[in-house]
């Protein structure tokens, strides 16, 4: 809170100083300014241009950023849309199925979600699906069960007007080639079901083989379907953990995140801006956002980038605000 107060003071002091410089400029009768005043004018103009310049992307909020608040029963899934809009001024949202796991076929509940989003002028973009099986399982029974379990979420996404469901290309098979073959089959079959509903099936780098950019890009090339793609996440590039589970334990093998994002971007239908910690200047500690957003921009991407804060040092609300400010700052520099 002290850091926020200090930043606010500096911000307002800067505005006052700029206003003073404008006054000097006016009193001097226009262009007759000193070298220092001219420099101040250039700095102010640049700051104003950055503030009003449209970004090359739009900002959305991933529901996982508030998972502690939701799990603590301090925020209900139905209030997510209004929270995104009224607390954070964000008009695009990304759901996590864990927070309404038993509601995929509940028409009345989904209708209420639609109403809440419409009332707040919020666009429902996608649903992140967990707990429904891996779509790269080499065991045919497990693979077919996973495909079937995802069908209801495709239907729910259609009802909510989402463009995609995010799935996991997880496999318990340690052999990369066999897992890739199964992923092609599983994602293709689910993609066919999604095609009928007008829904994309997108894979996030979410542990295991899926966090290997080259592996996932290879799977996408083999599938070659317009509604099957990726959701590149800035931070999920742990290929192997000491516990063997893709999301639990200490990471012992990590893929280069900038390389991985670049490999996934040609198939991207969304992007996830993961953040955990920030330095005193408001920069993300674990990811160079300037370098990362340049990779995204160079790929020609102009869609939504979703804030996904999951750090411990800042509250969820502060983490979301810090990530949003960083996206806006770097986005303006690159636009």
> What integer value in Å does the Rg equal?
22 Å
Count up the helices: 11
Distance between the termini: 31 Å
**Main β sheet profile:** 8 strands, parallel
Contiguous runs where pLDDT drops below 50 for at least 5 residues: 1-37, 39-47
Order the strands across the largest sheet as they lie in space: 6-5-4-3-2-1-10-9
Given helix and strand content, the structural type is alpha/beta
The arrangement of helices and strands along the chain is: HHEHHEHEHEHEHEEEHEHEH
Give the overall pLDDT as a whole number: 88
The fraction of residues assigned to DSSP E strands is 5-15%
DSSP, total strands: 10
Shape: globular
Proportion of helical residues: 40-55%
